């Protein structure tokens, strides 16, 4: 006989797989209560627990798999959201860093040094000594004021744009520096010197051209009459390209050895007071226009102009340069 809790056709656990003859002919002589009907729609497992029919188990498995997929999808979505957030934050951080680097490299506008209102320092002579022409400091964002040469028609007005790491500038200085100084001292020439920095990338990360030119600008600001002596010393100690060059402490020592005694120059060098102005002056020289020149802009160093005419001769031949200077002065007389 069938137990009361068994559905027709089901098998008790201990007889699983054993055929039951004539099971199909068995009929129940009593009605089944509703509670029994609900209960009897489930098979029993080995522990007497109700087990869903095969169809229901498949549906339950599908539902369970669906729920698992949905839960996994939620986890994946959370992970992707987190990753996107992390990547987004990373990109924002990178963008902020790039922006910071750009702002720092450009630098805020800064006033220039005194006695360099033209972006250069003008040196003249009285027959016995060389003096700097005094000018007020260039205000932040102010345009440079070109030197008025209307009263300088009887002299060779030499303008030089140099980078203190440039080996060709060093060659020109070694070849012509002494004779130019003698012309200026005698009052036969003026020298307008423009330090710029175009070779920072060739100084092993030390930005030596900027630091050296800043040192020169510090001297122009505080002790301008010693500018030419410091300029000569900087070229005499010129480092090779792709080296770090002199440290700020060594630059300070160098200007002192050249005769600079003003104590404010040392802090000006270490603080790099005029580095931002120098960057702006360099950009102006490279972009142009250059005042009183037959060229639009500086395209390399040294750029040497005599009465507005570009010198293109040999840098290592003093006679060639001297002849060029004489040729530019003669038409003006």
From TrEMBL:
Zinc found in the keyword field: no
Domain of life (superkingdom): Bacteria
Residue ranges of the region described as Disordered: 1-77
Biased composition (Basic and acidic residues): 53-75
Compositionally biased tracts (Polar residues): 28-46
Domain Thioredoxin-like fold, chain residue ranges per copy: 157-316
Transmembrane intervals: 81-103
Entry keywords, A to Z: Membrane, Transmembrane, Transmembrane helix
CDD domains in the cross-refs: DsbA_family
The protein, known as: Thioredoxin-like fold domain-containing protein
């Amino acid at each position: 006989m069938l137990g009361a809790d068994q559905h027709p056709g089901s098998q008790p656990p201990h007889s699983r797989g054993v055929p039951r003859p004539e099971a199909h002919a068995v009929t129940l002589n009593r009605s089944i209560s509703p509670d029994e009907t609900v209960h009897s729609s489930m098979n029993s497992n080995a522990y007497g627990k109700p087990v869903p029919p095969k169809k229901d188990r498949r549906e339950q498995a599908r539902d369970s798999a669906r729920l698992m997929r949905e839960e996994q999808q939620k986890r994946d979505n959370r992970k992707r959201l987190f990753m996107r957030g992390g990547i987004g934050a990373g990109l924002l951080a990178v963008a902020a860093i790039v922006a910071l680097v750009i702002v720092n490299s450009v630098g805020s506008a800064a006033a220039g040094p005194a006695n360099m209102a033209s972006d250069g320092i003008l040196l003249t002579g009285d027959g016995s000594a060389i003096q700097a022409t005094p000018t007020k400091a260039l205000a932040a964002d102010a345009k440079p004021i070109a030197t008025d040469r209307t009263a300088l028609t009887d002299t060779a007005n030499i303008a030089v744009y140099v980078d203190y790491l440039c080996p060709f500038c060093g060659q020109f200085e070694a070849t012509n520096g002494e004779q130019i100084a003698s012309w200026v001292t005698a009052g036969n020439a003026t020298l307008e010197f423009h330090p710029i920095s175009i070779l920072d990338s060739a100084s092993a990360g030390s930005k030596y051209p900027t630091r050296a030119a800043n040192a020169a600008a510090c001297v122009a600001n505080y002790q301008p009459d010693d500018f030419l002596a410091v300029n000569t010393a900087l070229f005499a100690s010129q480092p090779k390209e792709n080296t770090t060059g002199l440290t700020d402490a060594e630059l300070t020592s160098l200007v002192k050895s050249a005769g600079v005694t003003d104590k404010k120059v040392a802090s000006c060098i270490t603080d790099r007071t005029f580095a931002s102005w120098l960057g702006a002056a360099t950009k102006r020289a490279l972009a142009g226009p250059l005042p009183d020149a037959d060229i639009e802009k500086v395209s390399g160093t040294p750029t040497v102009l005599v009465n507005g005419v570009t010198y293109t001769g040999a840098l290592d031949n003093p006679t060639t340069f001297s002849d060029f200077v004489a040729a530019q002065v003669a038409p003006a007389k």
